Amino acid sequence: MSRTADFYAVLGIARDAEEGEVKKAYRKLAMEHHPDRNNGDKAAEEKFKEITEAYEVLRDPDKRAAYDRYGIAGVRGRGHGGPDPMHFDLSEALSVFMRDFGGLGGFDAFFGGGQRAQRDRHRGQDLKVALKLTLAEVATGAQKAVRVRTLDRCPTCGGSGAKTGTKPVTCGTCRGSGEVRRNAQSIFGQFLTVSPCPTCAGEGTIIEKPCDRCDGDGRVKAEKTVQIDVPAGVADHHYLTLRGHGVPGPRGGPPGDLIAVLDIKEDPRFERRGDDLVYDLPVSFTQAALGAEIDVPTPYGTSTLRVHPGTQTGTVHRIRGKGLPRIGESGHGDLHVRVHVWTPTKLTAEQRRLLESFSQIEGAPPTEGAGRQIWEDLKRALGI
User: What is the DSSP letter of 384?
Assistant: First the structure.
């Protein structure tokens, strides 16, 4: 798909379309352009992949929000890690359609659905892991290693499932095609049905002498370490998909995917608002009244903030570029520093004497409405 394509236009829906409208539009277009209905036409195949990509983004609230904000860059490449997860091949697009709609119903029988069912059945399972991150890792990106329990190709038979010195033999029922075809009669006339071969379960081969180690499955239990590159700027509960790092399919079948669900630990210093961060800075009365230069924390170290004389509680200072990276594009968010004038709870005798003297000469407090103005300034600074 072109990097400038509009996913909403691809599905022919409005930008405020509800989830049900997205699904309905996709199903209609997918039924029209499904490869099984177009005899392998390449243009239909490309259209099918294109609408499936659009559907996968717009059906998911998190991906849709990223797309609405950043465009295609927000859901491709850096946004998910590893190979480009939104760059569909035909098998992936067909898997999406099968997952949500169960195929074409009766049309699978007419146009070779048996082969695709065979392929989907032999694909390995997806693995899902929780990936814990700190806010500092979100700010800079990180490489994480996760240990997973999975299955691996049997080293004895190389994944074939056949005993050493033997190999699978061609199924005599389907002669290696993995499917059987039958002529049937209906009120509309004669038609051809295609279904997985009952003898070899659609594989096209039969293992006469199974491998002793894997008992013919072609896989054995294993543990492995997977390196995951986490892009900077990711959000909690988003996920990274590593294509082909899941469980391998039985007897040489294609592997599933590894899905890492992100679990970002809250940093007690900051409140996250998308790419921006908010930090509450306590200052003393004298610092607020006289002004001061104060070091404030950021995800990248400390920055010096100048508090101007006469600063009031609720004043917000913006430190540009000290927020989190904007995922899918260049630049960073900002750090918003909210000032709170700290009132001591206990006073020494000297402090009390000085404050009582000061109270005799201090001015009157702000007029009514000043507090509301501070709140309006705060909302405007944070975009709320």
Answer: -
pLDDT of residue 117: 46
| Phi, psi (rounded to 5 degrees) for 152 | -135, 160
The tokens 């998910």 sit on which residue?
A: 80
* Sheet of 316-319, strands arranged across: 270-273, 276-283, 335-341, 316-319
Which run of H or of E encompasses 118? helix 113-122
Q: Say if residue 321's pLDDT is above 70.
A: yes
Q: What is the pTM of this model?
A: 0.59
Q: Which helix (H) or strand (E) holds 69?
A: helix 61-70
The 10s digit of each residue's pLDDT in 51-95 is 999 999 999 888 888 888 777 767 764 343 333 444 567 777 777
Residue 374: pLDDT band (50, 70, 90) is: low
Helix (H) / strand (E) containing 33: helix 19-33
CA–CA separation, 247 vs 218, rounded Å?
12
- Determine contact, residues 279/297, Cβ cutoff 8 Å: yes
Q: Is the dihedral of CA 379, 380, 381, 383 positive or negative?
A: positive
277: β partners = 272, 335
Q: Name the residue type at position 338.
A: R
Q: How far is C-alpha 102 from the chain's CA centre? A: 24
The two structure tokens encoding residue 229: 């590159």
> Predicted confidence band at 379 (pLDDT cuts at 50, 70, 90)?
low
Beta-strand relationship, 239-242 and 258-264: antiparallel
79, 141, 80: which is closest to 300 by C-alpha?
A: 141
Cα torsion 286, 291, 297, 298: sign: positive
Q: What is the pLDDT of residue 367?
A: 64
Contact yes or no for 152/219 (Cβ under 8 A): yes
- Transcribe 277-324 into DSSP letters: EEEEEEE-HHHHHH-EEEEEEETTEEEEEEEPTTPPTT-EEEETT-S-
Q: Rounded distance, CA 208 to CA 189, Å?
A: 40
Question: What's the rounded Cα separation, in Å, for the pair 272 and 264?
Answer: 11
